[in-house]
Amino acid sequence: MLARPLLLAALLTSNIAAAQSWQATPSGTTAELRGLSVVSDKVAWASGARGTVLRTIDGAHWQAMQVPEADKIDFRDIHAIDAKTAIVMGAGPGAASRIYATADGGATWRLTTTNQVAEGFWDAMAFWDKDHGILFGDPVKGSFQVYATSDGGASWQEVAARGLEAMPSEGAFAASGTCLTVAGSSDAWIATGGGATSRVFHSADRGKTWRAASTPIPAGAAARGVFSVAFLNAKEGFAAGGDYKETQMAGVNGARTEDGGASWTPVSIQPAGYMSVVAPVPGAPRTLVAAGLAGSGYSLDGGKSWTALDKTPMNTVGFASPAAGWAVGPKGLVMKYAGPTLGGK
Questions:
Q1: Angle at 76 between CA 147 and CA 89, to 5 degrees
Q2: pLDDT digits (tens, 9 = 90+) for 11-49
């Protein structure tokens, strides 16, 4: 007779825990938010549609701002150095792909770089250190585009990369600014979809040469493939994705590697469905968090097994520590992490 009440109590407790995994925070905007850069447990920046940039310097309150003359630019990625310094990347066809920089907390912005290729479309950027970074874009004349910076994003030079030939219909997804990631001092990975198979490209020389490997995440349609890739170290990594038009579709939405991206093993992230980001958690060497319009979940064992957090639709997440992180998403959504501590040393 006690089994049913106990079961109901357990389910209620589980639901309450899930509901408390993320705490909504006023953002001051209704713009779609897709970029997120976490500097510390107090400082973070976010970016999104209509030239929107957000910043918090106390870990609680967010200030929304609009980059001047960028109201039609969709900022899909942002990289912050500290509370004053950040660069933000617009994604779109041709000149809609551009980069702005601020050194005074967003009081003023400077347009530093504009895509000069009419058929180009930038997807993401990432940095090895405060000076050296890489920028990645969709295929032009059959090959993906790569640019490099050595001055913190103030200027970018196209790299004459080898090994980035695209399959028919293959492209990348600028859904969260995380289809590109870096590790160590020279490794970089980019993730793709849309073509016959989803792939992850790896470079060990800061983008000069690349080698592609297929992943088990389904592709074969414009909305399907790998949307995000993250590495815990030079060898262990994880890819996340799915189909953004079928957000609750069951199936393989993750893949893991233990050889630097040369081969990939299928994994089912929980909750099931479309995931637009996977992110490592600083201070927890085995922990990953994945999120998307299907919700969010975490892994404490390098991506082998997953536990669902909740089903709030999100676009991207970022963490400062196992207990401090944020998520951003549709209609100006900003959420602070309020769930269980996610592992740790």
A1: 40
A2: 333 343 445 899 999 999 999 999 999 999 999 999 999
